[in-house]
Amino acid sequence: MSGITTGNSSTYEPLSSVYWGGDHLVLLDQRLLPEEIVYLKLSTPEEVWEGIHSMKVRGAPAIGIAAAFGAVLGGILYEADDSEGWLQQVVKTCAYLATSRPTAVNLFWALDRMKLAAEKLAADKLDTAALNAALLAEAEAIRSEDEEVCRRIGENALPFFKDGMGVLTHCNAGGLATAKYGTALAPMYLAHEQGLNIKVFADETRPVLQGARLTAFELQQAGIDVTLLADNMAAMVMSKGWIQAVIVGTDRVAANGDVANKIGTYGVAVLAKAHGIPFYVACPLSTIDLNTKTGADIPIEERPAEEITEGFGKRTAPQGVKVYNPAFDITPNEYVTAIITEKGVVQAPYHESLKSLFE
Ligand code: MRU
């Protein structure tokens, strides 16, 4: 992998976290933000797998987009000129990329879509150059549709946000986690475009600090009012009356409306309910998994102990201490005021309202 350092920029331009570079995938290395803006050039499915696994690219939609381009790389690396062998290689690549992270369903959604496209293309018995070009077009479509979908999520969310409101968010569900705009942060960008002032409070989001490193960074770059909080400050800030709404993204919504999101989200939802504050979840339909019945069926990723004992370099815990490090938690549906999607806003009972989004 090679990196291009472009340095910090003082003028605002939204950074693209994942895009196609002609014959390779380009990833913004989110592990290095906000200190360094480094773009990586990935040319093999193995490099894409590692990029997703190590969270150089992260956030449910962005992971799906990266994996879709990873499937394209699998096809490009196939050397013979028979559509059957090409299809087998693409299917094998998709199965491999699906092992990179377990919780965000967008990964599996995007890979299933790529597999289906490859099957249809291979049936037409095109030469491999034509197959690769058509498969790339499918990955590009996943990326461009995500941008459009996120904008629509923002439009559907905007009526819940008024000028001067304080809004708390957890983790990063912004432009960096998607093709553009984000999900939970999309209404902030749209409000800003319309001259509304929303005061965003960003939880720092232990242990990987997506709130501090990514949400605070991208909102500040955009000129949006953002205040960074340590995770344990949310209750205090809510009790002061500074927060009128909470909005978060999600990695997977189960059929009953239970929501998997970054560890700590459940606590924020409980606090919101205790303070009478609405708790909104913003996501594309590709994050809703009607095949997963409840939150208890969602696989929760556990990550290395070092993220807690020596996050970003310095050791902060005794050697050998036992550590539990789940990357996500489940917010039960009764804490979710509404789920905001590109197709509209749904509320409880979720097993009915979520299903209606797909009809
Ligand atoms: O571990 P991460 O950084 O991939 O977790 C990301 C989140 O939890 C986001 O809130 C979620 O993926 C939604 S991104 C639009």
TrEMBL record:
UniProt KW Amino-acid biosynthesis keyword: yes
Residue positions of the active site: D251 (proton donor)
Catalytic reaction annotation: 5-(methylsulfanyl)-alpha-D-ribose 1-phosphate = 5-(methylsulfanyl)-D-ribulose 1-phosphate
Site feature location: Transition state stabilizer: C171
Residues reported in the UniProt entry to bind substrate: R58, G59, A60, R101, Q210, N261, K262
Keywords: Amino-acid biosynthesis, Initiation factor, Isomerase, Methionine biosynthesis, Protein biosynthesis
E.C. designation(s): 5.3.1.23
Enzyme class: isomerase
Pfam short name (any one): IF-2B
Pathway(s) served: Amino-acid biosynthesis; L-methionine biosynthesis via salvage pathway; L-methionine from S-methyl-5-thio-alpha-D-ribose 1-phosphate: step 1/6
Family: Belongs to the EIF-2B alpha/beta/delta subunits family. MtnA subfamily.
PANTHER family membership: METHYLTHIORIBOSE-1-PHOSPHATE ISOMERASE
Protein name as catalogued: Methylthioribose-1-phosphate isomerase
Species assigned in the record: Paenibacillus vortex V453
Gene name, Swiss-Prot/TrEMBL: mtnA
